[in-house]
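Example noted here:
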Amino acid sequence: MSAGQQAVPANNANNASNEGAQKKHMSKAAVAIIAVVVVAIIVVVVVAIIVVAGVFGFRAYSDAQYNNAVAACAAASENVRNATNDYNNLVNGDASEAAALTKKDVKDASTLDALNKELSVELPVYEGCVADDTAGFKSATAKLNEQADWYKAYTQSLQKAVDAVNASKK
C-alpha cells in the first residue's frame, strides 16, 4: 500500500470521529431545542389551566353574588309586604273607626284634622324584585327597603294620630 492509500483510512477515521462529534453536537442542540419546546408546552398548558380556573372562579363568584342579591331582594319584598299589611290593618281598623268620629265627638278637632292628613298620604308604588342582573336586584332591594321604612314610619305616625283622636274622645 502506498502512503497515500494508508493516509485515506486515517482521514476516514478522522472524518468518522468528526461526524460522531457533529452528531453528538447536533444531538445536544436537538436535546436543547426539545427541552425548550417541552418547557414552552408546559407553560402554555399551565397558563391555559390558570385561565380556565379563573373563568370558572369568576363565574362561581358572580353566580354567588347574583344569588345573594336575589335572596336579599326577596327578603326586602317580604319586609315591605309585612309593613304594608301592618299599615293597612291600622288604616282599615282603628284609623277607620277614629276617622268616623265627628268634631262633636272629640274635645280637640285638630286631632281629626291630623288623622285625616295622615290618611290622605300618597302610598309608595310597589315595584317588586324585577331585574335581570345583580345590579338590578341590588337597586330593587334598596327601593324596597325604602318602601318598608316608609310604611313603618307612617304606621307609627298614623298610630299616634289615632291615639290622639281616641284620647280626645268625649
